[in-house]
Amino acid sequence: MRTAIDLFAGTGAATAELARRxxxxxxxxxxxxxxxxxxxxxxxxxxxxxxxxxxxxxxxTEFSRTFMPWIDQDRPSLEAIELIFHTLRVIxxxxxRYWILENVKGAQRxxxxxxxxxxxxxxxxxxxxDQFGKYEYPDLTKKWRLGPSPxxxxxxxxxxxxxxxxxxxxxxxxxxxxKAA
Length: 181
Hints:
It contains six helices and six strands, in the order E-H-E-E-H-H-E-H-E-E-H-H. It has helices at residues 13-20, 61-66, 78-94, 108-111, 152-157, 161-175; strands spanning 3-7, 24-28, 53-56, 98-103, 116-118, 121-126. The protein has a six-stranded mixed sheet, with helices on both faces.
């Protein structure tokens, strides 16, 4: 059985397609409002066999604010940076065949130039990013149309179904030794 770790899983949308396809998905989430297999990345340790894939979507608010000229914040908090360090630690421990760290454009100042981006989603990692261009993402603009609501931050951060589907397709094709169609 293929195994994925979803760090900062939130609603689980990023790996929902993998779970639907029969993958074992281990969800790590710091927000108690969301379901998780493990509550806090700071205490999560992977000591099992290498995994097939790690998806990580660390909180982006701090990185977004540093990119906005009207907000007086020139760097993310130490906690935001600490969460990135723990993300990279877990990736190192899990030794995945492929991994993606997703965040916002403003994170490039601290993480380096993103390998790829789809809409406002900036992606770093070890993944065949060049294969993303073969897919369409019709649901990317929906988050900009969200009205005021207590759920707005959750809905804005939710990974779009089209991206999750493309990731699953690319992963399975590459893990099975085939290139994306």
